[in-house]
Amino acid sequence: MLLIETFRVALQSLWINKLRSSLTILGLVIGILSVVVITTLGNAAQADMTSAFDEYGRGRINVNLLFNANRSVQYRDFFSDDDIDALEGMESDVAAVSPELRRWMNIQHGNKQMRIDMMGVNSNYNKVERIDLIRGRFFTEEDVLGRRNVMVLDEKAARYLFGSVDIIGEVVSLSTGNFSVELMIIGVDKLPDSAILNMAQGDYSYGYMPITVASRMYFTDRYPRFMLQAQEGLDLNIVSERILNLLERRNKERGMYRVFTREGEFNQVTQGLGFLTATVSGIAAISLLVGGIGIMNIMLVSVTERTREIGIRKAIGAKMSVIMLQFLVEAVILSIVGGFLGLLIGGAISFGIVNMLGLPFLISKNSIMLAFLFSTVVGVVFGVYPAHKASKLDPIEALRYE
Amino acid sequence: MIDIKEINKIYKTGNIEVHALKDINLQIQEGEFVAITGPSGSGKSTFMNIIGCLDRATSGIYILDDAMIDDLSDNELASIRNEKIGFVFQSFNLLSRTSALKNVELPMMYAGVPRKERKERAMEALRRVGLEDRVDHKPNELSGGQKQRVAVARALVNKPAIILADEPTGNLDSKSTQEVMDLFKSLNEEGATILIVTHEQEIAEQTKRMITFKDGEIIVDKELKREGNI
Known about the structure:
Largest sheet of chain B: 6 strands, mixed
Strand content of chain A: 15-25%
Order of helices and strands of chain A: HHEHEEEHEHEHEEHEHEHEHHHHH
Shape of chain A: elongated
Distance between the termini of chain B: 26 Å
CATH superfamily of chain B: P-loop containing nucleotide triphosphate hydrolases
Number of domains of chain A: 2
CATH topology of chain B: Rossmann fold
Order of helices and strands of chain B: EEEHEEHEHHHEHEHEE
Number of strands of chain B: 10
Distance between the termini of chain A: 32 Å
Mean pLDDT of chain A: 88
Number of strands of chain A: 11
CATH architecture of chain B: 3-Layer(aba) Sandwich
Number of domains of chain B: 1
Structural class of chain A: alpha+beta
Helix content of chain A: 55-70%
Helix content of chain B: 25-40%
CATH class of chain B: Alpha Beta
Oligomer: heterodimer
Largest sheet of chain A: 6 strands, mixed, barrel
């Protein structure tokens, strides 16, 4: 009963000082807004990374020859076709394996040319890495074994060189050092869906050619690296260990290799992102503190201004708790309205940004609750002192106040 | 109704003690109409604050309507003020941005009277002081006399044991003064106990009993014969 009245009176007196009230909550609005925007963007980025990871990286293991190990690298350290075959033989652990020979090359069509990351891989590669062709096909075992001069190009390079993706059957010239080769395009790979990955890649472009063609170009039949897709549901650490054991049996020295799992890399990236989000929100949260101090300041002014009103109310029979409640409710209304506006504006801004970047828009119930909880707490914490001060006023003094 | 025994009030500022009230003894019965007069500094305002439960005596006993006031907490005093005392101040002390009606409702709000009843009783009180056509006006839209009548309506709306008026005509012209005094007289006719603090002899003479303070003591306490009828 009295609480409703108190609410009404509080709203009324805040409404009378509209400009002052809105300026007071501005600090809190900005604080909540920035926390909302930052956490929403952080969450969106993480969700984007996770879905990208689900598409591309689960169960993926890379084994690299280390060029900076204790001793210098020898010919026998590289992986041979026999090694790859042996790995393929681990059928219960391994779904697919592909060696990789990789160089930066010049790719040319007509008078347009660009740098491109060319990867020589085998026909299993599309089981290891997600290959999502928008045109044509990936190469087959026949292409690989027959050393056919074919290649798959990414969408970005296709659009740059040809201005189109309808380029199946076109021939491009690739060169590295003093060696060059002409390859026919048989497929075009789609850009990843993940906005973050696309952004991170910048103008990076890539292509795939049969490993056999790459071998011929680079004059080698051994590979410094292979990629492997583990069978579903296996613990990648155990699979990695088994792979190293196999390599050891095949006379390879354990210390010369480094095993990467995408999961590990992914966790590092998302952890980093999470930490960054938390830190920046923490900094933004400082503005909430500033907002709270703003509320306290204006409430103190209000108490002084309304000393006479407080005196009248007390003389007429308002208890200390009633006066206290009245000012506290005012402070909490200010802070909750500030929190609500911050949430609304922050949500709108982050929706805009996230849409622009093509990220998923996720605003969690938790963060909404947190914003409200936090602004209420700010209101109570910074409202208590002025409210207490008001309730303690001596009615005789207060009535005399001009 | 009011029973005051051996009340003393001593103010201390640093080493200086001011003996504002000295051994005051006084009884006021229900239905009385009393004026408290005296020069400024005589202690009449201090006395008024104590009777109004805005301040506590340093020593002595104060009984208001069967309640021992001396050992009540601040919050209990607030309740007493709310239920038993109606204040009328020299400077009106109305909430400035609030309508006459809401001002009159205020004491009932703190008494926990339901909304609907509150409004009805406030309307009735405003009708009693002749302001039924001014209920939605804010204090700055009312004349001095009208403001003071709103204050009187607010003072009587909770049916207090006593109405305390502190220089109620001090800020009014002579016409409004008479209006307000006539209002007090007729309220008293209807049975209200009224205590007016004033330094104006003409005001005091319109009451039924005049108590005069000087240097913290009561020097005169006499019944007055009312001249004429209202």
